[in-house]
Each structure stands twice: as structure tokens, then as C-alpha cells.
Write the C-alpha cells for this entry.
Amino acid sequence: MADRADVAVPTGPEVWRRHAQDHRVEQSLDESSAPLSARARFLRRFLQQRPAIGALTFLVLIVLAALFAPLLAPYDPDQNDIRNLLSGPSGDHWLGTDHLGRDTLSRMLYGARVSLLAAVQAVSIALVLGVVPGLLAGFFGRWVDVVIMRATETIMTFPPLLLAIAIVAVRGPGLFNAMLAVGVVFAPRFARLVRGLVLGVREETFIEASRSIGTPAHRILRRHVLPNILSPLVVQISLALGFAMLAEAALSFLGLGVRPPEASWGALLQVAYNNINRNSFQAIPPGVAIMLCVLAFNLLGDGIRDSLGKEIRRGT
Amino acid sequence: MTALENREPAAGSAADTLLRVDDLHVSFKGRGRARKVRAVNGVSFELGRSETVGLVGESGSGKSTVGRAIMRLIPADSGRVQLDGRELLSLGRSELRAARKDVQMVFQDPYSSMNPAMVVADVIGEPLDVQAGMGRSERNTRVAELLEAVGLSQRHIERYPYEFSGGQRQRIAIARALANHPKVVILDEAVSALDVSTQNQIINLLEDLQAETGVSMLFIAHDLAVVRHIARRTVVIYLGQVMEVGPSERIFEHPAHPYAEALLSAVPVPNPEIQRRRERVVLRGEPPDPTNLPLGCPFVTRCRYAMDVCADTMPELTPVDGGGLVACHLQTAGPNLAGRSLDALGVEAEPIVPPTR
């Protein structure tokens, strides 16, 4: 072995090929029963989760209904039927009408658009504001961590609704501002969750292995850290969507969200509440819809969590 | 493995030095008022071109820390690490990034050293992406080639790490380390987590790969039998200091340092007859607190030949018969003991620090 240094070192494919014959391992990875890919395994497990499947189906239907609201809605959502004010369910108005004679079913369908969009908006804002600081705080530690964590704690000391109201008060009412407020309220939760997850992943040897070849930090964060914290994050996102929907309803109920005559489920609930003594039925459709959607988001989150088994992180 | 005994230069160095580690010091600061732990305390050795050097010591001896400091994964306090005459420890960010191509590492745990969310193509291809900036198809061709080279199939390119066994994963780690034609591969306990038959396969693979690519290897391990097999020269360290350096054959046949002797007697012999008959040197006592090392030889607290001088004077590295260097007063003072322990000559020395328990 001592004099190998001065032998011309063969390289290139022919060496590798020759070499491969010497070192072929017993193929314990038999090709016939190829193990499922991580994605296939997730799908198979997910399909066994009945509540989650139900929730997903329900949410898909709601999304489709919202998308095709103009086709599905029997009336224009802002059209008044003066002869039928605050009517109950009937052949003409399946879910009755509100105090201005507007068709509740139509307003529910259009409201679904607003409510879903609002929830997505709020969670997206929360993700942008929360995930990046969380990643940085967890990965770099030291003063970066201290600064970011103290900032998030400052935000968390405010009661969420109060903070949202304050933001809306400063920026003026409107759905986007309301959702911005909800996003700001949620951001610290994402930041803290992500930071904690990163702290767990940061010490893994594969991070060190990647650092040892000189991978820049942003690439390590993108390629190694983020994919490995994704599953708890996805669960949190689906839960947050439910909460955001609820928050939108609450803010709209308080008159801080959508502005009339636009409909959202929260706004519908507010109108129904104002007239609850004259027709109590009107509160039921938006109330039930909000409840079912929040429930569906939660069940979906649970289902995703249970389907993302630990074996993705460790060999079985 | 033959005819190298007397070609060994007196300094215990390699003929054609590729990597030179000189007086390396690494310490870890304790939290709060805790004193700093001196993990590596003036380690020097050399690694020749296409050579394998074993770095052995029990756990906590600082052998992995040496590897990590060479890789600049942890900062060194002082010392020099030269690769091909180029100082690595003082390189700036961008120079370091370029230099990392030449030194690669294989880690101990084949499970946690691979991102579970990446397929094999990305695990092996990462150095190619980061260091060589290869295009995707070129990269995948190279990855397939590497997979075949380490005895896996290029069909495995889209598999996830969890689909492989420990030995197979270590093959993937080796393929990754070799991807960019490095000059040195540091194997940090690379076979320790594997069972014996898999260890053998990996060792043979490493030897063949070395013969073919001419890569130098620093083989960090606590298993001496493995080191003896693969390394031409061995460095024995204890509490961050080099106790003995030399040709593996000589160290394993005639260990000059009492610590090396003790380590060797802990290696089981496959033949139960011999295993039962042979004399075992059992280390008593605990290693000293690394935050508060003895003034003299760090091994003094456990050495069965410890003398007064050992407690307050650190012995110099001295040439040994048969090649190599040893840091032991048994070898520096008095007549030449030819690398044999005083015990064999019938001399008993009182341990100055009575064994605990």
C-alpha cells in the first residue's frame, strides 16, 4: 500500500464499473416488493383516516361551492326581495332571507369565498411573518434568537382580539386589514413552533455533514431544516386555518371585517344576531357552516399528523 | 503492509506528507463559571498521500474533536493544519468553501447523518451541487457512477435513506464523501455502528476505493482490530494528547506506551484459548477531569507504571525501536527498553496515585 502513491491513479467510469463487480452487496432491497415512497405511504395512511377524508371532502365541496358561487347561487347576493323580509326556509328561498330580503343561500355561497379567502390570507401572512423569524432564531441562536423571541413575546402579551382591533383601528376597517391583524396575532405562534422544531433538527448529524461541505446557511435552512419540520407545520397550518376563519367571523361580527353589503359568514352571523328576535333561523346557516369548517380543518390537521408517521424520520 | 518498518522517518511522519496537523489545541468553554474543557491539547501528526492513518483512543479522548477541528466544524484555539502545504485554519470564508472540497467526512451514525427527507440522489449529489455546481443530468450520472462504485445499484437513486440498512447507508455516505474527488477523507467512527461482517465489507470497500482513487484516509476509531487492519500508521491519543505514533504493526505487536498496551489488551481475541490465557491490563480508576488535567502525563492517574516524575513532567515524544514516537518516561529515562514494558523485565513500580475503589 505504501507505494500506491506513485502509481498512476485510474479514475473514471471504467474503474467504478470494475469496482462495482467486486463489491456488489446482496440486494436486500429486492425490487419486486419495492417499499413505498414516503408520499405513497402517507397517502395510504391518510386514506384510512375516515374523519380526515370526510373533512377533506367537505372542505373541497365548500371550496367548489365558493368557486362556482355565481353559477350555483339562485339569486344575486345583493338583490332585495321586499316581499320576503326575514323569511324562513321556503321553496323560493331555501335558507330564507335576511332583514333586507336578500337570499341567504346566495349570500352563504358568496360568503364562503370571502371567509375562505380571508382565512388563507391570514394564515399566509402569519406564515410569512412567523416562519422566517422562527427559522432564523432556531438555527442561529445567540442574539438572533434573543431579539426575535423577545419581539414575539411582546406581541403575545397583547390579548389577540384587542391587538386585532387596534390594528384595524389604525389601518381602517376592511377585510384585508382584519386578516392582516389576524396574521400578526398568529405569527408569533408559528415563530415559536418553528423555532422549537428547528432546535430539534439543528443538532442532527446531517446538518453537520452539510456544513462540512460548505453548504451556505440559507441552503441548509431550505434543503435540510424546512423539509424536516414541515409535518408539524402543516398540521399547525390546518388548525390555524380553522382559527382564522373563526377570527374573521368574530371580527366581521364586530363590524371590523368585511364591509356591507359584502357577505362573509361572520357578517351574516352578525346580521342574523341583530334580528334574532324576529327570525332566529337566520343565525343557523352561517353558524353551522363556520362550525363545520373549523371542525373540518381540525380533523384534517389531525389526519395529516397521524399519517405522517415517525418512520419518515427514522428507518423502520 | 510490509517493508515499511525502517523507512519510517524519525519524526513519525509520512514520506509524502499531504495533511500535517501541528500542535492543535481545541477547548470548549463550560457554561457559566465552569472551567474550559481542553479537548485537544497539542496534537501533531501527519498523513501521507494515499495513506491511511488510524486515530485511536477511548471515548472522550478527543479523537473526534481532532477530526472536526480539521474540518473546521469547530474552531481550534491554536495550532496549524496544513493540506498540501496550505494552512486551513486561517482561511477566510470563501477560501474555506473552496478548500472544503479536498477534505470530506464520513460520520459515525449512518442513521442521523442523512437527511430523511432527501432521496439518495440528493444525499450523494449535495457536494456536487454545492461545491461543483453541476447541472442536474451531469450530477445524476456521477451519482449513479458512485452508487455502483460503492456496491449499490444506480436503481437506488430515487430511494429514501430509511429504505437502506446501516451498512448500505454507510456506503452511501462514502459515495457522498468521494463525490468530488477529495484528497482526504476523515472517517469518524465510520464502521463503529455496524456489525462485524458489515464492518469487514466496508473496510474492504474503503481499501479498494483507496487503491483506485489514491485518496488519503484519517480513520478515527476506538476499535483497534479494525484500525490495525486498515491503517498503515496509528496515532494513539489520550485526553487530547498524543501518547504514541508509529507503524500500526509495531504498535500492535509491541506497544511502547502503557496506555496503548492497556487499549490493546482490551481487544478480544477470537480464539477463546488465547483469550482466557493471555494477561489483561485492566485500566483502573477514572480518567482525570478534563477541565483540570494533571501537570504531567495525563495518564498518570491510571498508569500501572506511574513514577514520581510522571505526575509533574509531561514526557517528550521520543523515537521508539521499530519506528514511531512515544510520550512516556519509561521510554525516555534510563536504558533503552526496546518498546517493552518494564513489567516484562520484572520491574515493579508503585502507582503513585492509588487506584480508586
